[in-house]
Amino acid sequence: MNDSSVYDPTKDGEVISQTAEGNTTRQLSDLLQSQVFPRLLCLLQDADPVPLFALKLLSAIVERNPPLFARHMRKQDPLLLPLIADNYQVGHPRLNRHTINILKSVI
C-alpha cells in the first residue's frame, strides 16, 4: 500500500491501463472505494488500536493518491473529516503524523 507505483496509472509517461499493471491499479482503486472507504468511519470509531491502524492506512492512501480520497470525501462520507479532525487536539492519543498528514491533504 505504500508503494506509489501501485496508484500510478502511467509508466514512463504512457498510460498503462490496458496492461497487467494498469489492471492492478484499477482493481486496487475499486477495492478501496467499494470495501475500505465505506468502512473507515466504523474503523475510526472502533476500540483501540484499530483506529490507529486505520489512520495509518488512510495516511498511506492519501499520501500516494490524494484525489482518490478527496473524491470519496466529496461524494460519500461527510462525517469522516470531522471525526479525523477531532483527533487534532493537544494530548489526544490519536494525534500523530498520520492524522496530521490526512488533515493537511484535505484542507
Q: How is this structure best summarized?
A:
The chain is mainly α. Helices cover 59% and strands 4% of the residues.
List key phrases describing it:
59% helix; mainly alpha; 6 helices; two-stranded antiparallel sheet; 107 residues
Question: How would you explain this protein's 3D organization?
Answer:
- The protein is 59% helix and 4% strand.
- It has 107 residues and is mainly α.
- The chain has one domain.
- The protein has a two-stranded antiparallel ribbon with strand order 1-2.
- The longest helix is centred in the first third of the chain and has 17 residues, at 20-36.
- The two termini are 23 Å apart.
Structural topology:
Layout lengths: L9 E2 L2 E2 L4 H17 L3 H5 L5 H15 L1 H10 L4 H6 L11 H10 L1
Helix pairs in contact: 3-4, 3-6
Helix proportion range? 55-70%
Average pLDDT: 81
Placed side by side, the strands forming the largest sheet appear as 1-2
Structural class computed from helices and strand pairing: mainly alpha
**N to C succession of SSEs:** EEHHHHHH
| Strand residue content | under 5%
Please give the domain count: 1
Oligomer: single chain
Shape: elongated
Number of helices: 6
How many β-strands, per DSSP?
2
Largest sheet: 2 strands, antiparallel
Low-confidence stretches: none
Q: In angstroms, what separates the terminal alpha carbons? A: 23 Å
Gyration radius over CA: 15 Å
